[in-house]
Amino acid sequence: MYPPTTVTAYAHGKINLHLGVGSLRSDGYHDLVTIFQSVDRHDVVTLEVMDGLPGEILELTCATRGVPTDETNLAWRAVAAVFAAAPDPAALPAVCIDITKKIPTAGGMAGGSADAAAALLAANHLIGAPLTKEELLKLAADLGSDVPFTLLGGTAIGTGRGENLTTVLNRATLHWVLAFSSAGLSTPDVFRTLDNLGHTPHLDSTELQQALAAGNPETIAGLLHNDLQPAAISLQPEIRTTLRLGEEAGALAGIVSGSGPTCAFLCADAQSAQEVAAELSLHSAVAVTTSPAKGAYLEGH
Fold it and tell me: Per its database record, what is this protein's job (predicted)?
Protein backbone atom coordinates (compact mmCIF):
# COMPACT_ATOMS: atom_id res chain seq x y z
CA MET A 1 0.00 0.00 0.00
CA TYR A 2 1.01 3.60 -0.54
CA PRO A 3 1.35 5.71 2.64
CA PRO A 4 -1.55 8.09 3.38
CA THR A 5 -1.01 11.25 1.38
CA THR A 6 -2.76 14.06 -0.45
CA VAL A 7 -2.12 15.27 -3.99
CA THR A 8 -3.54 18.50 -5.40
CA ALA A 9 -3.63 19.52 -9.06
CA TYR A 10 -4.88 22.56 -10.95
CA ALA A 11 -6.30 22.99 -14.43
CA HIS A 12 -7.46 26.10 -16.27
CA GLY A 13 -10.61 26.82 -18.22
CA LYS A 14 -10.59 27.79 -21.88
CA ILE A 15 -12.08 30.16 -24.40
CA ASN A 16 -12.60 29.21 -28.05
CA LEU A 17 -11.23 32.16 -30.00
CA HIS A 18 -12.55 30.46 -33.12
CA LEU A 19 -15.08 27.64 -33.24
CA GLY A 20 -16.12 26.35 -36.64
CA VAL A 21 -18.62 23.49 -36.64
CA GLY A 22 -18.70 21.14 -39.60
CA SER A 23 -21.16 18.44 -40.52
CA LEU A 24 -22.58 15.84 -38.15
CA ARG A 25 -20.60 12.60 -38.22
CA SER A 26 -21.88 9.05 -38.04
CA ASP A 27 -20.58 8.76 -34.46
CA GLY A 28 -22.79 11.65 -33.31
CA TYR A 29 -19.99 14.21 -33.10
CA HIS A 30 -19.34 17.17 -35.41
CA ASP A 31 -16.08 17.88 -37.18
CA LEU A 32 -14.60 20.99 -35.61
CA VAL A 33 -11.91 23.52 -36.33
CA THR A 34 -11.30 25.48 -33.16
CA ILE A 35 -8.61 27.64 -31.64
CA PHE A 36 -8.45 27.03 -27.91
CA GLN A 37 -6.80 29.39 -25.48
CA SER A 38 -6.50 28.64 -21.77
CA VAL A 39 -7.44 31.40 -19.33
CA ASP A 40 -6.04 32.18 -15.91
CA ARG A 41 -9.02 30.79 -14.03
CA HIS A 42 -8.66 27.31 -12.60
CA ASP A 43 -10.35 24.51 -10.70
CA VAL A 44 -8.57 22.55 -7.97
CA VAL A 45 -8.74 18.76 -7.64
CA THR A 46 -7.43 17.04 -4.51
CA LEU A 47 -7.01 13.30 -4.02
CA GLU A 48 -6.68 11.99 -0.48
CA VAL A 49 -5.66 8.44 0.33
CA MET A 50 -8.09 6.70 2.67
CA ASP A 51 -8.67 3.23 4.09
CA GLY A 52 -10.43 1.07 1.53
CA LEU A 53 -10.02 -1.54 -1.15
CA PRO A 54 -7.17 -1.14 -3.70
CA GLY A 55 -8.22 1.30 -6.42
CA GLU A 56 -11.52 2.15 -4.73
CA ILE A 57 -12.93 5.67 -5.16
CA LEU A 58 -14.82 6.21 -1.92
CA GLU A 59 -16.49 9.55 -2.61
CA LEU A 60 -16.32 12.81 -4.55
CA THR A 61 -17.13 16.09 -2.85
CA CYS A 62 -17.72 19.53 -4.34
CA ALA A 63 -19.38 22.54 -2.75
CA THR A 64 -20.64 23.89 -6.08
CA ARG A 65 -24.28 23.15 -6.81
CA GLY A 66 -24.99 21.06 -9.88
CA VAL A 67 -21.66 19.21 -9.98
CA PRO A 68 -22.22 15.42 -10.03
CA THR A 69 -20.60 13.61 -7.13
CA ASP A 70 -20.71 10.07 -8.51
CA GLU A 71 -19.04 8.07 -11.28
CA THR A 72 -20.64 10.30 -13.94
CA ASN A 73 -18.23 13.09 -12.95
CA LEU A 74 -15.31 13.34 -15.40
CA ALA A 75 -12.80 13.70 -12.57
CA TRP A 76 -14.04 10.43 -11.02
CA ARG A 77 -13.79 8.76 -14.43
CA ALA A 78 -10.27 10.17 -14.91
CA VAL A 79 -9.02 8.70 -11.62
CA ALA A 80 -10.65 5.37 -12.49
CA ALA A 81 -8.97 5.41 -15.92
CA VAL A 82 -5.52 5.99 -14.43
CA PHE A 83 -6.05 3.25 -11.86
CA ALA A 84 -7.23 0.86 -14.60
CA ALA A 85 -4.02 1.50 -16.53
CA ALA A 86 -1.73 1.09 -13.49
CA PRO A 87 0.82 -1.74 -13.69
CA ASP A 88 0.18 -3.06 -10.15
CA PRO A 89 -3.57 -2.97 -9.32
CA ALA A 90 -3.08 -4.67 -5.96
CA ALA A 91 -0.90 -1.77 -4.77
CA LEU A 92 -3.37 0.97 -5.64
CA PRO A 93 -4.65 3.24 -2.87
CA ALA A 94 -8.29 3.95 -2.08
CA VAL A 95 -9.04 7.65 -2.50
CA CYS A 96 -11.51 10.44 -1.95
CA ILE A 97 -11.76 13.25 -4.51
CA ASP A 98 -12.51 16.89 -3.73
CA ILE A 99 -13.11 19.59 -6.36
CA THR A 100 -13.02 23.33 -5.77
CA LYS A 101 -14.50 25.18 -8.72
CA LYS A 102 -13.81 28.63 -10.15
CA ILE A 103 -14.71 27.64 -13.72
CA PRO A 104 -18.50 27.77 -14.24
CA THR A 105 -20.45 24.55 -14.53
CA ALA A 106 -22.06 24.06 -17.97
CA GLY A 107 -20.62 27.44 -18.92
CA GLY A 108 -18.76 26.68 -22.14
CA MET A 109 -15.32 26.99 -20.55
CA ALA A 110 -14.48 23.27 -20.19
CA GLY A 111 -14.78 23.22 -16.41
CA GLY A 112 -15.56 19.50 -16.25
CA SER A 113 -12.78 18.76 -18.71
CA ALA A 114 -10.34 20.79 -16.62
CA ASP A 115 -11.32 18.76 -13.55
CA ALA A 116 -10.62 15.57 -15.51
CA ALA A 117 -7.20 16.85 -16.63
CA ALA A 118 -6.25 17.76 -13.07
CA ALA A 119 -7.50 14.39 -11.82
CA LEU A 120 -5.42 12.54 -14.42
CA LEU A 121 -2.26 14.29 -13.24
CA ALA A 122 -3.05 13.86 -9.55
CA ALA A 123 -3.92 10.17 -9.82
CA ASN A 124 -0.83 9.42 -11.89
CA HIS A 125 1.40 11.24 -9.40
CA LEU A 126 -0.23 9.50 -6.46
CA ILE A 127 0.78 6.06 -7.76
CA GLY A 128 4.33 6.97 -8.73
CA ALA A 129 3.72 8.43 -12.22
CA PRO A 130 3.84 5.19 -14.24
CA LEU A 131 1.97 6.74 -17.21
CA THR A 132 3.75 8.91 -19.76
CA LYS A 133 2.44 12.24 -21.04
CA GLU A 134 1.38 10.52 -24.26
CA GLU A 135 -0.52 7.84 -22.32
CA LEU A 136 -2.28 10.51 -20.25
CA LEU A 137 -3.26 12.36 -23.44
CA LYS A 138 -4.77 9.15 -24.82
CA LEU A 139 -6.83 8.72 -21.64
CA ALA A 140 -7.78 12.40 -21.88
CA ALA A 141 -9.11 12.00 -25.43
CA ASP A 142 -11.14 8.98 -24.35
CA LEU A 143 -12.71 11.02 -21.54
CA GLY A 144 -13.83 13.98 -23.65
CA SER A 145 -13.08 16.27 -26.57
CA ASP A 146 -11.80 19.19 -24.45
CA VAL A 147 -9.81 17.19 -21.90
CA PRO A 148 -6.59 16.94 -23.97
CA PHE A 149 -6.44 20.72 -24.37
CA THR A 150 -7.08 21.44 -20.70
CA LEU A 151 -4.25 19.04 -19.92
CA LEU A 152 -1.84 20.89 -22.24
CA GLY A 153 -3.05 24.51 -22.02
CA GLY A 154 -1.62 27.47 -23.92
CA THR A 155 -2.96 28.15 -27.42
CA ALA A 156 -3.76 25.37 -29.88
CA ILE A 157 -5.86 24.54 -32.90
CA GLY A 158 -8.11 21.55 -32.39
CA THR A 159 -9.54 19.42 -35.19
CA GLY A 160 -11.58 16.23 -35.36
CA ARG A 161 -13.97 16.63 -32.42
CA GLY A 162 -11.35 18.97 -30.89
CA GLU A 163 -9.00 16.32 -29.50
CA ASN A 164 -6.35 16.55 -32.26
CA LEU A 165 -4.16 19.45 -31.16
CA THR A 166 -1.44 21.53 -32.79
CA THR A 167 0.23 24.38 -30.90
CA VAL A 168 -0.45 27.87 -32.29
CA LEU A 169 2.10 30.67 -32.01
CA ASN A 170 0.77 33.47 -29.80
CA ARG A 171 2.61 36.69 -28.97
CA ALA A 172 -0.18 38.46 -27.09
CA THR A 173 -1.31 38.53 -23.48
CA LEU A 174 -5.03 39.02 -23.81
CA HIS A 175 -7.24 40.71 -21.21
CA TRP A 176 -10.75 39.39 -20.78
CA VAL A 177 -13.92 40.02 -18.85
CA LEU A 178 -16.05 36.93 -18.34
CA ALA A 179 -19.79 37.38 -17.79
CA PHE A 180 -21.47 34.37 -16.19
CA SER A 181 -25.06 33.23 -16.49
CA SER A 182 -27.11 31.99 -13.56
CA ALA A 183 -28.20 28.97 -15.68
CA GLY A 184 -25.99 26.64 -17.69
CA LEU A 185 -26.46 25.27 -21.19
CA SER A 186 -26.20 21.63 -22.22
CA THR A 187 -23.55 21.22 -24.92
CA PRO A 188 -25.53 18.50 -26.76
CA ASP A 189 -28.61 20.76 -26.71
CA VAL A 190 -26.64 23.62 -28.26
CA PHE A 191 -25.28 21.40 -31.04
CA ARG A 192 -28.75 19.99 -31.73
CA THR A 193 -30.15 23.50 -31.93
CA LEU A 194 -27.41 24.49 -34.37
CA ASP A 195 -28.29 21.51 -36.58
CA ASN A 196 -31.95 22.54 -36.53
CA LEU A 197 -31.18 26.17 -37.30
CA GLY A 198 -28.75 25.33 -40.09
CA HIS A 199 -25.55 27.29 -40.70
CA THR A 200 -22.61 27.80 -43.01
CA PRO A 201 -19.51 26.36 -41.29
CA HIS A 202 -16.59 28.74 -40.71
CA LEU A 203 -13.66 26.34 -40.76
CA ASP A 204 -10.81 28.62 -41.87
CA SER A 205 -8.89 30.13 -38.94
CA THR A 206 -5.82 31.24 -40.92
CA GLU A 207 -6.30 34.99 -40.39
CA LEU A 208 -6.80 34.56 -36.66
CA GLN A 209 -3.66 32.43 -36.38
CA GLN A 210 -1.72 35.18 -38.17
CA ALA A 211 -3.15 37.80 -35.82
CA LEU A 212 -2.18 35.75 -32.76
CA ALA A 213 1.35 35.45 -34.11
CA ALA A 214 1.46 39.23 -34.61
CA GLY A 215 0.11 39.81 -31.11
CA ASN A 216 -2.32 42.68 -31.81
CA PRO A 217 -5.45 42.50 -29.60
CA GLU A 218 -7.45 44.85 -31.86
CA THR A 219 -6.87 42.64 -34.89
CA ILE A 220 -7.58 39.49 -32.88
CA ALA A 221 -10.87 41.01 -31.64
CA GLY A 222 -12.14 41.46 -35.19
CA LEU A 223 -11.51 37.80 -35.99
CA LEU A 224 -13.19 36.11 -33.00
CA HIS A 225 -15.89 33.74 -34.23
CA ASN A 226 -18.18 31.02 -32.84
CA ASP A 227 -20.55 29.02 -35.06
CA LEU A 228 -22.42 27.91 -31.91
CA GLN A 229 -23.25 31.46 -30.83
CA PRO A 230 -26.64 31.75 -32.65
CA ALA A 231 -27.74 28.42 -31.17
CA ALA A 232 -26.72 29.47 -27.65
CA ILE A 233 -28.61 32.76 -28.05
CA SER A 234 -31.64 30.87 -29.34
CA LEU A 235 -31.69 28.78 -26.17
CA GLN A 236 -30.84 31.66 -23.82
CA PRO A 237 -31.87 34.97 -25.47
CA GLU A 238 -30.49 37.11 -22.64
CA ILE A 239 -27.00 36.31 -23.97
CA ARG A 240 -27.68 38.82 -26.74
CA THR A 241 -28.22 41.57 -24.15
CA THR A 242 -25.04 40.62 -22.30
CA LEU A 243 -22.98 40.77 -25.50
CA ARG A 244 -24.43 44.19 -26.37
CA LEU A 245 -23.80 45.61 -22.89
CA GLY A 246 -20.20 44.41 -22.83
CA GLU A 247 -19.37 46.00 -26.17
CA GLU A 248 -21.17 49.22 -25.17
CA ALA A 249 -19.04 49.25 -22.00
CA GLY A 250 -15.89 49.40 -24.13
CA ALA A 251 -14.84 45.84 -24.92
CA LEU A 252 -13.11 45.35 -28.26
CA ALA A 253 -15.38 42.38 -28.96
CA GLY A 254 -17.60 39.89 -27.19
CA ILE A 255 -18.12 36.22 -27.96
CA VAL A 256 -19.98 33.28 -26.47
CA SER A 257 -17.42 30.90 -24.98
CA GLY A 258 -17.77 27.44 -26.52
CA SER A 259 -21.35 26.21 -26.22
CA GLY A 260 -22.12 29.01 -23.75
CA PRO A 261 -23.64 30.64 -21.92
CA THR A 262 -20.53 32.39 -20.56
CA CYS A 263 -19.68 35.50 -22.58
CA ALA A 264 -16.02 36.49 -23.01
CA PHE A 265 -15.13 40.11 -23.74
CA LEU A 266 -11.71 40.92 -25.16
CA CYS A 267 -10.41 44.26 -23.90
CA ALA A 268 -7.57 46.50 -25.04
CA ASP A 269 -5.63 46.28 -21.76
CA ALA A 270 -5.92 45.55 -18.05
CA GLN A 271 -7.42 48.96 -17.20
CA SER A 272 -10.06 48.64 -19.90
CA ALA A 273 -10.95 45.17 -18.59
CA GLN A 274 -11.54 46.58 -15.10
CA GLU A 275 -13.76 49.32 -16.51
CA VAL A 276 -15.80 46.89 -18.60
CA ALA A 277 -16.14 44.54 -15.63
CA ALA A 278 -17.43 47.36 -13.44
CA GLU A 279 -20.16 48.18 -15.98
CA LEU A 280 -21.13 44.58 -16.62
CA SER A 281 -21.27 43.74 -12.92
CA LEU A 282 -24.50 45.73 -12.76
CA HIS A 283 -26.03 43.12 -15.09
CA SER A 284 -24.37 39.80 -14.23
CA ALA A 285 -21.62 38.10 -12.25
CA VAL A 286 -18.24 38.84 -13.81
CA ALA A 287 -14.54 38.03 -13.51
CA VAL A 288 -11.42 39.58 -15.02
CA THR A 289 -8.79 37.22 -16.37
CA THR A 290 -5.95 36.93 -18.87
CA SER A 291 -4.82 34.40 -21.44
CA PRO A 292 -3.02 32.25 -22.33
CA ALA A 293 -2.39 30.19 -19.20
CA LYS A 294 -0.42 26.98 -18.78
CA GLY A 295 -1.80 23.48 -18.79
CA ALA A 296 -2.75 21.32 -15.82
CA TYR A 297 -0.11 21.13 -13.10
CA LEU A 298 0.55 19.65 -9.70
CA GLU A 299 0.77 21.75 -6.55
CA GLY A 300 4.42 22.46 -5.83
CA HIS A 301 5.53 21.59 -9.37
Answer: Catalyzes the phosphorylation of the position 2 hydroxy group of 4-diphosphocytidyl-2C-methyl-D-erythritol.
